[in-house]
Amino acid sequence: MALSQADVQKPFDLQRYLLDLLDLNGAVAETPGFALVEALLPAETAAALEVPAHVLLAFDYEVATENPGAEFVTFGSPLLDRAINLGKTLGKATKKYAAPEHLAIPPGMLERVEKKMDFLNCRRPSLLSTSLLQCEYVRFNFAVRFLSDEKQEAGYPVLIDTLAGNDVSYQIPWLKGIFFAETGEALAKAPPGSHCGYARAYELAKEGLPMVIDKDLTAFWRRMTGYLGVEEKRLQTYYTGTREEIIKRTAKLAAGDPRREKLEQKLAATEADYRMRLEDLRNKFHVSVEAHLESVAVYVLPKVKILLNLQHRTHTASLELYYNLAANQLELPYCPQCREPFSVVHMTRDGAIRCPVCAG
Question: What is the per-residue pLDDT across 179-227, written as a single tens digit (0 to 9) for each?
């Protein structure tokens, strides 16, 4: 992304340059205000620019003054110099647009819903409306290290739907079956849906990461705990034998014998040494976790918003569902109470919609 002669001859838009640069290097950026850019950077990009992974950039002096935590970018600033040096290297595009063959609402939406979901304690749902939307998924790719006597490192993705701010990592396999293009002409007819914001999406991804790594972390912890158990048993066997030998020798000596006093001191020292070595051993096999954001990818997808009407006696309620048009899959709704996806809708006596667990 080096500057061409044509670029030099026209006004140089710092903000546009930084936005393009960040996009090409795997960052996700938005402009929350005038001359202000908020960005989430991959670790390598953050290191190259020498800024935090979550950074606020200001391109106006007054804006920088009003936002003390922002990095001020201007001509001659070290940050701009680093950005230009980074721009000389090739980046990768991380914003992709689904390119469905037909951008239209499929027929039989209600039947598709009823095929995948069950409705309890209410009448058969009626379809109120359907509409096309353009939505964004953000895939946060984390590099995670499990540290103990051994090290284990792997990448773990967390997928966030910015429409409602939900963790939809279960849909990651769906992405493999979707054709993506570098531009969004195919989605032009679909108006953009709501967006929770990239900063909020990042927080949700960090909250969801422990669940994603739980299986591997548990296996790693059990392996280290097993090694610790073996080493603790070996240590205990050695010091138990040593203690018994000292006690046996001490018992043969009369009270007041200087040799007995030395053996008693040796026994106390042996006990202290055992406790110290046991603590060292447990520290050696203690498990810790390090994680950092490695890259970010944005996927723009078309969805069908489905609005259903549910009725239980005198109570009525509306339920919003979304059909992923690119993956041809109905997305499960999230329970308003526990925030878990569910496929069985239970309408309570007071007309609230809950999953069966929360409905009791």
Answer: 877 788 888 889 999 999 888 999 999 999 999 999 999 999 999 999 9
If you ran DSSP here, which 8-state letter would residue 344 be given? E
DSSP string covering 81-149:
HHHHHHHTS--B--EEEE--S--SPPS-HHHHHHHH-EEESSPPPEEEEEEEEEEEEEEEEEEEEEESS
* Last residue of one domain, picked from the residues 87, 116, 133: 87
pTM of the model: 0.69
Residue 299 and residue 171 share a domain: yes
Report whether 209 contacts 142 (CB < 8 A): yes
Q: CB within 8 A of 256, min separation 6: which ones?
A: none
**Phi, psi dihedral angles at 26 (to 5 degrees):** 85, 15
Q: Return the beta strands (E) in the chain as ranges.
A: 28-33, 36-40, 54-58, 71-72, 95-98, 118-120, 126-147, 151-161, 166-167, 180-181, 288-312, 315-324, 329-331, 344-347, 353-354
- When divided into structural domains, the chain yields a total of 2
Two tokens, residue 216: 């591997």
Under 8 Å between Cβ of 270 and 243? yes
Tokens of 69: 């935590």
Sort residue 67 into left (φ over 0), alpha (ψ -120 to 50) or beta: beta
